[in-house]
Design brief:
The structure is a single chain. The chain is an all-alpha fold. It has helices at 3-60, 66-120, 122-127, 130-163, 165-184, 186-196, 201-240, 246-257, 265-277, 281-307, 314-328, 330-357. α1 (3-60) packs across α2, α1 crosses α11 (314-328) and α2 packs antiparallel against α5.
Length: 358
């Protein structure tokens, strides 16, 4: 990319960041009230855009009617996801129940190891002032309490999500029914939009929305591919090396992979260090090899994802994440970059539209 293009992309990203900030502020106030109601339909809109290429392929190449093509693609997704989710939930439930029963043992093990570390550092404590030794004792005790609270909180959250499976099934049913109607009547909905909005705003706004959401869908497809690869490699590798809770850790790693600042490193590096501290050198080596394989594969694929990401400057992505975190919390870390991609795509489409008109 030449310097002028980089400057232009950075300028667009700066303008997009201002709009992202305003959008996040509005979303932050509206999400509390509207998101629980509109979430199935927003997800349905995203899914319909994701499957639109497959629907168009069946419609144009195989001469399927639009309703039949939409129904066929949705049924394939439902059957595939249903089988995968059923297997994953059953395995996840078994691992979480086992982890719940062994949690007191793991917490006691944490305490024992930290106490041994304190005992090994007694000679150092003897050379330190009493205030410094007391501070280190309090620090280690606080660390143990933090680890204990994190483990309990994570486990309670995971079990709580599993208990909400019946409600999630209802939400998924509503989502896929809405997906079918949106996908089936997509052209009619676009025509209705153009007729309702006065000219030329209807067609221009539709073009900008298509460009903006098209950029987001392109980005989302790439991220879903990366997360799926991360989860598959992690689960397969952990099963091969005989690690317990392979599915649970693989899913958590995939969730962390969605957060650019964190990623799989947040799971593997502390785990490897803990194995070294506890003397499990063989397990630490296996985890390091798995992490290296995952890092190399993901790094090689991420270059292609960045190429698909419309040239968004990394500084703009980081700023969008920080703004989203400050306005909406953890959800804003995800929504910030997404809105940045949508807004930047819309800005480019607007510039192209003005250039075509002139």
């Amino acid at each position: 990319m030449v310097p002028s293009e980089r400057v232009r992309n950075l300028t667009w990203a700066a303008g997009a960041l201002l709009l992202v900030t305003l959008n996040l502020i509005v979303l932050g106030y509206a999400a509390h009230y509207l998101l629980p109601i509109l979430l199935p339909f927003l997800v349905a809109l995203i899914i319909s855009l994701l499957i639109d290429p497959a629907v168009k392929f069946l419609q144009t190449r195989l001469r399927f009617p639009r309703p039949l093509a939409s129904m066929g693609v949705i049924l394939v997704i439902l059957v595939g996801l249903g089988c995968l989710l059923t297997l994953a939930v059953l395995r996840l439930l078994a691992e979480l129940v086992q982890l719940s029963s062994l949690l007191p043992y793991h917490i006691a093990n944490f305490r024992r190891i930290f106490e041994e570390l304190i005992e090994e550092a007694v000679t150092v404590y003897g050379k330190l002032p009493p205030a410094a030794a007391s501070y280190l004792d309090d620090l280690l005790a606080s660390l143990v309490r933090s680890v204990e609270g994190f483990l309990r909180g994570t486990l309670d959250t995971a079990l709580g999500l599993l208990s909400a499976v019946p409600l999630m099934v209802i939400v998924l049913m509503v989502t896929f029914v809405a997906t079918y109607f949106i996908s089936r009547d997509w052209e009619k909905l676009c025509d209705t939009w153009v007729r309702v909005i006065p000219a030329p705003w209807g067609a221009s706004s539709l073009h900008i929305m298509r460009q903006g959401f098209g950029a987001f869908i392109q980005f989302l497809r790439a991220q879903l591919v990366l997360v799926s690869i991360t989860m598959a490699i992690t689960i397969t590798g952990l099963l091969i090396i005989g690690s317990p809770y392979a599915v649970t850790i693989g899913i958590i790693t995939g969730v962390f992979d969605l957060l650019p600042i964190l990623g799989p490193t947040t799971i593997f590096v502390p785990w490897i260090l803990w194995c070294i501290i506890t003397g499990s050198y063989s397990m630490a080596l296996k985890l390091f090899i798995l992490y290296a394989v995952l890092f190399v594969i993901r790094a090689s694929l991420e270059a292609k994802v960045i190429a698909m990401n419309l040239g968004v400057h990394p500084l703009a992505v980081l700023a969008a994440m920080y703004i989203g975190l400050k306005i909406m919390g953890i959800l804003g870390v995800i929504l910030g970059p997404i809105l940045l991609i949508i807004v930047q795509g819309a800005i480019k489409a607007g510039i192209q539209a003005r250039g075509a008109n002139t």
